[in-house]
Amino acid sequence: MPLITFHKNGQTFQDEVKAGSNLVVRAGIKQYPYPHLTYQCGMGKCATCACRIIAGAENLPPPNWKEKKQLGDRLDQGYRLACQLWLEHDLELEQIPLAAAPAVSAA
Ligand code: FES
């Protein structure tokens, strides 16, 4: 089962999820990473669920057209839309609201 490490507001949360899980769907049914993951539409339209991938990006599929449209240059900084990802492998990610995210990654 994928181990998901989630960072937000200086805190770190970690739990295993079933293979094929979507973190926004899980939050919608009040499972980890609920209540910490912020999201809205669940359909790739609002970018509220945007997270920066810290580790495990190599195991994710390429960004889909919704992610490209919503994230633009942020894709190059490692951002993905959590609602568009179905997780099969361990992943470490951080949620910073896009409005508050630095223009250039400091990593
Ligand atoms: S929740 Fe709206 S884009 Fe993911």
Automatic annotation (TrEMBL):
It comes from the Bacteria. InterPro entries: 2Fe-2S_ferredoxin-like_sf, 2Fe-2S_ferredoxin-type, 2Fe2S_fd_BS, Beta-grasp_dom_sf. CDD domains: fer2 (cd00207). Residues 2-99 form the 2Fe-2S ferredoxin-type domain. Signal peptide: none annotated. SUPFAM superfamilies: 2Fe-2S ferredoxin-like. This is Ferredoxin. It comes from Comamonas odontotermitis.
